[in-house]
Amino acid sequence: MYREDWPPFLVPRHIVACLVVVLGILTACSQPSEPPLRIGTSFWPGYEPLHLAKSLGLYDDYRVKLIELVNASDVLHAMRTRNLEGAVLTLDEALTLIQDGIDLRVILVMDVSNGGDVLLAKPEIKTLAGLRGKRVAVEDTAVGAILLDAALEAAGLTVADIEVVACTVDRHEDCYSSANAVVTFEPVRTRLLNQGARLLFDSSQIPGRIVDVLVVHAEITETHPESLQYLLGGYFQALEHLQHQPDDAARRMAVRLGITAAEMLASYDGISLPGLSGNKTLFAEGPESLQTTVADLAHYMLEKKLLSEVISVENFIDGSFLAD
Prior knowledge:
Order of helices and strands: HEHEHEHEEEHEHEHEEHHHHEHH
Oligomer: single chain
Structural class: alpha/beta
Shape: globular
Helix content: 40-55%
Distance between the termini: 50 Å
Radius of gyration: 24 Å
Largest sheet: 6 strands, mixed
Strand content: 15-25%
């Protein structure tokens, strides 16, 4: 009860002590018991639902921190140096990390590229065969090598028939200006097509070969189980928002990629987002399963010398965090 003899700006010590205790209890209740998950991302429409979840207030920094890096090479480096608990990568990039001795678990298939990855050339180069003797810019990652190799094979060419220019994705537009062609993906694909680039080859011609996944270090599945379920729960809610309110979702996501909302929605024409039910199907056993895709891709990469040795993927896939 308020007493007139207490100064208006003072509160008795025993009340202060009680308030401190209560606030401490409330703070402890509001803070998660696990350290925050640091998840590395780069620029690709298939990864944007994670950032959409953040925009919608579905993630807080106490449990999930999205670490934005400029290209896949930086994400791979951060995973190797353990500066991230997890990352969004192409499946082939994840396999290269396993080859390097990094023990990973795939907990989510984010998307399958069905035209979003492309080989674009200057307008005067009208066919793939026209790349002979030309400068082709490509990022030094397995996914770049896979698309370039498939395009050259379709043209009856080999890598010896062109001049390869190493170029990270954050420089793809500059490299396109100085080279004759570039292997790239959204959103650079849209920007270069708007500038008049010619589309010579895309990932729809190699179905199922470029798959994006969310991976975490193996021990994170044991140390951060609640945070992983929280991460995936927010992601699937963001996909629901994209499905039911596409204009609002596109407006939120387009800003980060530097394209219009209409271009953002159009970019998903070349990307399949499997969602929760699709992921459950992929993580189940069967001929269309993720396990089959992993085995086929590992065999292809070994054959094309993108892997130097046979790798074990026995415990690579973990679908236990796909909540009902």
